[in-house]
From TrEMBL, chain A:
Name of the protein: Xylose transport system permease protein XylH
Sorted UniProt keywords: Cell inner membrane, Cell membrane, Membrane, Sugar transport, Transmembrane, Transmembrane helix, Transport
One GO location term (cellular component): plasma membrane
Listed GO MF terms: transmembrane transporter activity
Membrane topology: Multi-pass membrane protein
Transmembrane segment boundaries: 70-90, 102-122, 127-145, 151-173, 180-199, 227-245, 266-284, 290-308, 337-357, 363-382, 394-414, 420-438
Biased composition (Basic and acidic residues): 1-14
């Protein structure tokens, strides 16, 4: 087989240009008279990554970038650029306190972005998440302060309301056939109106924040009460779980006789994750610790990632995003998937609303308004989830929010006017969508979309 | 020579189908045996697609009977057909571009391991299936989007085989393919026959039909217009049956027989 791979090993970049055609080309290279070479073990030259060692990864990386599979590359570059610019403008930007601020404030909008990732995977859009989050925080405040309901019960009620609102949007979209854009635009306006009506003349409802969910999500609530070990415990947990998961997968793949990730690659990946998470833990510890809001956000990411990649439901979401007709013929209930996805989006919007309430310990007229929606969409798209459906990962909510929140916090540090902030955010969103569109076009050209 | 069992896997007896005022199928008979490839040919509008859709359960029949392995059955919805073991590969392949080959093969019937998608077993079985069919694709882990038309076609056919069907219906599998890719698909059809599956192949391409089919069933204007063993029939005879230039021995004999029976 190694012989074959050497002969097949043409210039990978060139093979990529040929695109799908290369696949036919290489089948002729396969030794058809050799009975030991089962046809499926013939590997596309584009995929002969591991056989080439480090160089293989490099050419694979180049090919991916050329083919428009940018992954998290724009985010990494964006972060470096943004952090450099702001650090040059204000040397407090990369201080532990400011980075800790970023990590706390990104979780609220990040929750909205998680819900949006689901909707974007279907190739649809949910414009109502900002309004729904504002409405949820107001409902929560009304329940707790005006009606005297238990805070946790109020939280559950508010989130359930968000899910119901999302399901309603989904129903109009899936069953009636109204474009999702219009339904959620109506929701954007309507739910914001309901929120304003609920708040009435008072304008703002202050929520007691000594205990309960508002305290938990507040800025002064930290994982394990600021114990130094807390942050390292989280980082260690992430590393150990990833390591165990990867080796488990490798063992099962070896046993089944299918290609598996070599140990060196696993160690490299886990090592990179370990360095990143322990540095983050050290920085956060240097400030005050890991905020509970961030911990909940990260936990939500892990759970949702699992649902999307490892469950039948997640596979069905991707299938509907990739081809409705194919999904329908495979027996997938397309309307149900659509309705449930919008319900999930509404639910996460409501959870995000709780986070906003936790930030200010109040429900205000401006909650969920302004550029909240744009930031959430921008985060999901910047993180690498496509607007065109079928491609993306929930981790884009975290990566995108890192970029977005860095910009927000940086502009605040520089005392920029809201007007400037809006313009810059708009430009960033446009830039993200342009990258998405261009990468999709080059993926098509490279036969990958 | 192909081994042909006595009881057909599927037999249609006097099947008729109307759409409002249009009589799409009139009294059509068709038999498919295990290990036999029946090519269904006919001009545009001859009723090929309608016939296939009645078998696949998309359109229930109005009159006539369907026998499955000798027993009378009713096929009223696609689910019934799938339950019997009929797999249909439509012309538009309906694969998800963003999912990889394994994901597409098992879409809608993912294998689970403690409630979680069992990627490892699915990948293993997919590789086994593809290798027994001698299907050549670069990897089972690349998205369908990066495959060529022919490769997509063989993946779509392989997908139909996941449910272990007894009858596979292929609707114009080579219509959009180049020479080399068509050859791949025809090879695959032969391998289906070797696995003792019954195959109904709809095709416009007479060369393809001659290459892989055992029997050619001709439809014309919604009626049977002869069924020919491929070995002993010339290209021209089939074309004549399709176009209605029916002045040939086979149809004359059939005609004589029916008039005698009428007497």
């Amino acid at each position: 087989m190694s012989d074959t791979s050497k002969t097949v090993k043409t210039d990978s970049a060139e093979a990529a240009k040929v695109g799908a055609g290369a696949a036919e080309g290489q089948t002729t290279v396969a030794p058809s008279d050799d009975p030991t070479a089962a046809p499926v073990t013939v590997v596309d030259p584009r995929l002969l990554v591991r056989e080439e060692g480090f160089k293989g990864y490099l050419t694979e990386f180049k090919r991916k970038v050329k083919g428009g599979e940018l992954g998290s590359l724009p985010v990494v570059i964006g972060l470096i650029v943004i952090w450099t610019i702001f650090q040059l403008q204000n040397d407090r930007f990369l201080s532990a306190d400011n980075l800790s601020n970023i990590s706390y404030f990104l979780s609220a909008t990040g929750m909205l972005a998680i819900g949006l990732v689901f909707v974007l995977l279907l190739g649809e859009i949910d414009l109502s998440v900002g309004s729904v989050s504002g409405l949820a925080s107001t409902l929560f405040a009304v329940f707790v302060v005006n009606q005297g309901v238990n805070a946790w019960l109020s939280l559950v009620l508010a989130v359930l309301t968000g899910i119901a609102i999302g399901a309603l949007h989904g129903w109009f979209f899936a069953r009636i056939g109204v474009p999702a854009f219009v339904v959620t635009l109506a929701g954007f306006l309507g739910w914001n109106g309901l929120m304003l009506w609920l708040l009435g003349d008072s304008g703002t409802i202050n929520i007691p924040s000594e205990a309960g969910p508002v305290h938990l999500l507040g800025q002064s609530s930290f994982f394990m009460d600021q114990a130094i070990i807390g942050a390292y415990l989280l980082a260690g947990l992430a590393v150990v779980l990833t390591l165990v998961g990867n080796f488990n997968e490798q063992r099962r793949r070896k046993a089944a006789g299918v290609p598996f990730r070599p140990t060196s690659e696993i160690l490299l990946r886990v090592g990179a994750l370990g360095v990143a998470s322990f540095v983050a833990a050290a920085v956060l510890n240097d400030s005050a610790g890991v905020s509970n809001a961030l911990v909940i956000f990260l936990a939500a990411l892990v759970i949702v990632d699992f649902v999307l990649r490892r469950t039948t439901y997640g596979r069905q979401v991707f299938a509907v995003g990739g081809g409705i007709e194919a999904a329908r013929r495979a027996g997938i209930n397309v309307p149900m998937i659509r309705i449930s996805v919008f319900a999930i989006s509404g639910g996460f919007a409501a959870v995000g609303g709780m986070f906003f309430a936790g930030q200010t310990a109040s429900a205000t007229l401006s909650a969920g308004g302004g550029n909240t929606l744009m930031l959430a969409i921008a985060a999901a798209v910047i993180g690498g989830t496509s607007l065109f459906g079928g491609r993306g990962s929930v981790w884009s909510a975290l990566l995108g929010m890192l970029v977005i929140q860095s910009i927000q916090t940086g502009l605040d540090l520089l005392n920029m006017n809201t007007s400037i902030q809006y313009m810059i955010t708009g430009a960033v969103l446009l830039g993200a969508v342009v990258i998405d569109s261009v990468s999709r076009r080059s993926q098509k050209a490279a036969g990958r979309a | 020579m192909v081994h042909v069992s006595a009881t057909p896997v599927l037999a249609l007896r006097g099947v008729s189908k109307r759409f409002g005022a249009v009589q799409a199928l009139t009294d059509v008979d068709l038999e498919v045996h295990a290990g036999e490839v029946v090519a269904l040919v006919g001009d545009n509008g001859a009723g090929k697609s309608t016939l296939v859709k009645t078998i696949a359960g998309v359109h229930p029949i109005d009159e006539g009977a369907i026998e499955w392995q000798g027993n009378a059955v009713k096929i009223n919805k696609p689910h019934d057909a799938q339950g019997l073991g009929i797999a249909t590969v439509y012309q538009d392949l309906a694969l998800c571009d963003n999912l990889d080959v394994v994901g597409n093969l098992y879409l809608g019937r993912e294998l689970l391991h403690r409630g979680v998608i069992d990627e490892v077993t699915m990948e293993k079985k997919a590789r086994e299936l593809l290798s027994t069919l001698s299907i050549r694709i670069p990897s089972v882990r690349i998205p369908i989007a990066s495959l060529s038309g022919g490769q997509r076609q063989v993946v779509a056919i392989a997908r139909a085989l996941i449910g272990d069907p007894k009858l596979v219906i292929l609707d114009e599998p080579t219509a959009a393919l180049g020479v080399e890719q068509t050859a791949q698909v025809l090879d695959l059809v032969e391998r289906l026959r070797e696995r003792d599956l019954a195959v109904i192949l709809i095709s416009h391409n007479m060369a393809d039909v001659k290459a892989v089919a055992d029997t050619v069933a001709v439809l014309r204007l919604g009626k049977n217009n002869g069924s020919f063993p491929v070995k002993n029939t010339s290209h021209e005879e089939i074309i004549a049956a399709i176009t209605g230039a029916t002045d040939n021995a086979v149809t004359r004999r059939a005609e004589r027989r029916t008039t005698e029976a009428a007497k």
